[in-house]
Amino acid sequence: MGAAEAPTANAVERSAIRKVSVRLVPFVALMFFVNYLDRTAISFAEPNGMGDDLALTAAQFGFASGIFFLGYIVLEVPSNMALHRFGARRWLARIMISWGVVSLLFTWVQSSEQLYVLRFMLGVAEAGFFPGAILFLSQWVPSQHRAKILGLFYLAQPLTTVVGAPLAGWLISHHGLFGLEGWRVMFLFVSLPAILLGIAALFVLVDRPEDAKWLNRDEKNWLTGALAAENAGKTGSTSRHHAKGDLRRALTSSRVWVLSLVYFGFVYGLYALAFFLPTIIDGFQEQFGTEFSVMDKAWITAIPYLPAAVVLFFWTRHANRVGTRTWHIAGPAVVGGLSVPLALWTGSPAATVAVITITACAIFAALPVFWTVPSRFLTGAAAAAGIALINTMGNVAGFASGYVTGWLRDLTGSYVVPLYLVGFFMLLSAVLITGIATRTKDPRTASAPVGDTPEVRS
């Protein structure tokens, strides 16, 4: 009897995960695509007119890039707690509509001071989107499928630059449309999709598997049962009477804080590249005596991110198949940390972009796999708070990478010191994730899954 039931159970499992992958993940990934494009649009605008029009120094541009994350930090944890209380459908829709409205205002910015204010407001409006999306997807699939699902979701981030850089270049080339400079045209047209997607989210997203009309009864029962069994014993899975205690334990957990520092290193590298790669490519013209059009620079900016998307896809598939191991996160951190300084000593634009491509592949390989770790030992309110705290540290890194990179560029006259700092933080992430795995596992099983112990201990 048991042998006969097994194939049926497996078929229900495969069908349920396939429907989640088709019905929810592409839409949430599209939201992430627009989200990331809106927050990084400033990197395309600066070397294509905005920097000159607003008389920005590298430090001012870095500060404008980074202050977004300070706004995000202000409402990070409260926003994720609101999502847990009111449901992802309404809260993610609210986030998208409000950030789309703020992003639209960049079309008419007239000074560096106005730019700072709008970047801060954009962070406030977007606060909680990314950890909310991670939390939402984690609540739909059990851990053995999570790396695959988060990998599909994370594909949106590198593909945003693959598609977004040429799109931004094309929009910028329409200088004079509606009487606007090209970079203002870009801000106008990349903002509107956020508002439209926010309205659509109210009709597309579903808060819980049991409410999904596109799942049959067996699929609903399997998903809810698998998730309930997995959540039993995790921090945050107790009654509401203990919710405050679970929340406190999550926020004071040494493991959550170490994971926050690991994430800091990856995000520092991610945004140093995201905000300054177009400017570095623009500098190739003087450094190597070349000449690039706006579209040339856009296509060159996109080059590192297409291989990164491919590597991300296959790396997360492998992690999903064998289970997340320490080296799935530490290995890319080491590769990225060592490759960044090499980009400083190449002798041509092609060689520089090739090395930067290796760095981008390393960062994007590790990020979705990393996010499978917190949900292994957190659930409910504790998951909302813990994931938000980890992402808050990422936002600190986003601010620091933008401001510090620009400040060091002005101070030293080159990107040598800023990129060495990127390498240092990525190597630190490798050391920390290896350390936390060693402390929580038998030292003889260094390749064991990360974070499998069921409770958070401070």
Automatic annotation (TrEMBL):
<dbReference type="InterPro" id="IPR020846">
    <property type="entry name" value="MFS_dom"/>
</dbReference>
<feature type="transmembrane region" description="Helical">
    <location>
        <begin position="351"/>
        <end position="371"/>
    </location>
</feature>
<feature type="transmembrane region" description="Helical">
    <location>
        <begin position="57"/>
        <end position="79"/>
    </location>
</feature>
<feature type="transmembrane region" description="Helical">
    <location>
        <begin position="327"/>
        <end position="345"/>
    </location>
</feature>
<feature type="transmembrane region" description="Helical">
    <location>
        <begin position="185"/>
        <end position="206"/>
    </location>
</feature>
<feature type="transmembrane region" description="Helical">
    <location>
        <begin position="149"/>
        <end position="173"/>
    </location>
</feature>
<feature type="transmembrane region" description="Helical">
    <location>
        <begin position="256"/>
        <end position="278"/>
    </location>
</feature>
<dbReference type="InterPro" id="IPR011701">
    <property type="entry name" value="MFS"/>
</dbReference>
<feature type="transmembrane region" description="Helical">
    <location>
        <begin position="116"/>
        <end position="137"/>
    </location>
</feature>
<feature type="transmembrane region" description="Helical">
    <location>
        <begin position="91"/>
        <end position="110"/>
    </location>
</feature>
<dbReference type="GO" id="GO:0005886">
    <property type="term" value="C:plasma membrane"/>
</dbReference>
<feature type="transmembrane region" description="Helical">
    <location>
        <begin position="415"/>
        <end position="437"/>
    </location>
</feature>
<keyword id="KW-1133">Transmembrane helix</keyword>
<feature type="domain" description="Major facilitator superfamily (MFS) profile">
    <location>
        <begin position="24"/>
        <end position="441"/>
    </location>
</feature>
<dbReference type="GO" id="GO:0022857">
    <property type="term" value="F:transmembrane transporter activity"/>
</dbReference>
<protein>
    <recommendedName>
        <fullName>Putative tartrate transporter</fullName>
    </recommendedName>
</protein>
<feature type="transmembrane region" description="Helical">
    <location>
        <begin position="298"/>
        <end position="315"/>
    </location>
</feature>
<comment type="function">
    <text>Component of the tartrate utilization system and may allow entry of tartrate and tartrate dehydrogenase.</text>
</comment>
<keyword id="KW-0472">Membrane</keyword>
<feature type="transmembrane region" description="Helical">
    <location>
        <begin position="20"/>
        <end position="37"/>
    </location>
</feature>
<dbReference type="InterPro" id="IPR036259">
    <property type="entry name" value="MFS_trans_sf"/>
</dbReference>
<keyword id="KW-0813">Transport</keyword>
<feature type="transmembrane region" description="Helical">
    <location>
        <begin position="378"/>
        <end position="403"/>
    </location>
</feature>
<dbReference type="Pfam" id="PF07690">
    <property type="entry name" value="MFS_1"/>
</dbReference>
<keyword id="KW-0812">Transmembrane</keyword>
